[in-house]
Amino acid sequence: MTHARPFTTWLSLPALLVLSVPASSAAELKLAVVAPTAGSFAVLGDQVREGAALAAEGLSISIVEIDEPCTEGSGQAVAEAITAAGVKAAVGFLCSETLKEGLPVLADANLPALTLSVRWKGLMEDAVKAGWPLFRLAPNGDQESGKLSQVILRDWPGEPVALLEDGTIRGRELTEAIRITLEERGLKPAFIDTFRPGQEQQLTLVRRLKTAGISHVFVGGDRNDVSIIARDAKAEDLSLTLLGGEAMRAADEPVPLEDGVLAVGLVETPQGPSAPALIGDFEAAGIAPEGYVLPAHAAVTMLADSWGISSAMGTPVTDALIGTTFETVIGPITFGEDHELTENPYRLMKWQDNAFVPVSEPSQ
């Protein structure tokens, strides 16, 4: 397999190069979209196919849809279907089973694979070590806690901070990762506790926070638990700044979320100067830009641009993907030598008027 060129090679390309790819390069491109077509993950697969198809239509790219069963032992067959289709690259890959069994086959064919979902760190480490052409458009396992820690350290200095978790494995691990980072940076939480999730009220917890003089709280729990804490704090006349993780992207029921609650999450609205036109495209196509729709759209446009660069330069698509900054529907995207995103994709959001809206912050 061809090894990636040094990181500086593609960073040194003129910024306009990505915008000046000849139309004929995109017209020659055929991509595989790999996503589930049946079962509980089919709705997510539909999001991938919709986003990819809309991007491909605007770029005259040929799309081949490949089913992803997401079962043990299915990865090699998926990879063989991809190579047999005569495509130049593949996007999707919502399940780790597909990648861990299929990547060696894709590597032999030198076909880049962009996963929109799999966050398993070990898989990416193995891929880079083995020279497999896997790129991750999803965040890795550490970036959620990293973004939450950054927000707390940057925006809550000197404030009495509480860390609450709901006793689940996810809640406990996320909260513990944040605690370790905060204490390493000299911020010791004033209050740490485990609460019982799924309760109709959290008045006892809220009163304990009030007695402890807490004003800022991270909650490692589900959205409805945060909603109940916010509601009960309001009833107790306690002003709390509440911050949650990605689990806040859930239905606003049965208790509505109070305006002003913060969360970190991934962008689910088109970004950049072309956003108004893109929103119009989504509306015209009857597609809601949710879930994997925008990442799939971004993946296709990135591969179109990298294919144009590789065709112009006579180098592999994999090389073009490393170090080049691509303008996409979810904002600028750059892959490092480790095939990971060079920038943390999580953004600080605030719940306002029944929607999470991005919060302006120095890092953005």
CATH class type of the largest domain: Alpha Beta
Largest sheet: 7 strands, mixed
Q: Assign the CATH superfamily of the largest domain.
A: Response regulator
User: How many beta-strand segments?
Assistant: 14
What are the secondary-structure elements, in order, as H or E?
HHEHEHEHEHEHEHEHEHEEHHHEEEE
The CATH topology of the largest domain is: Rossmann fold
| Residue share in β-strands | 15-25%
The domain count comes to 2
Give the distance, in angstroms, between the N- and C-terminal Cα atoms: 36 Å
| The CATH architecture of the largest domain | 3-Layer(aba) Sandwich
Extract low-pLDDT stretches: 1-27
The shape is elongated
Average pLDDT over all residues: 90
Question: How many helices?
Answer: 13
Strand order of the largest sheet: 7-6-8-9-10-13-14
Helix content: 40-55%
Which structural class do the helices and strands define?
alpha/beta
Q: Cα-atom Rg, whole angstroms?
A: 22 Å
Secondary structure elements and pairings:
Layout (H helix, E strand, L loop, with lengths): L6 H5 L11 H5 L2 E6 L6 H18 L2 E6 L7 H10 L4 E4 L3 H13 L4 E3 L5 H10 L3 E3 L6 H13 L5 E5 L3 H16 L6 E4 L8 H9 L4 E5 L2 H13 L5 E4 L17 E4 L9 H11 L7 H21 L3 H5 L3 E4 L2 E4 L12 E6 L2 E4 L6
Parallel strand pairs: 1-2, 1-3, 3-4, 4-5, 6-7, 6-8, 8-9, 9-10
Antiparallel strand pairs: 10-13, 11-12, 13-14
Helix pairs in contact: 3-12, 4-5, 7-8
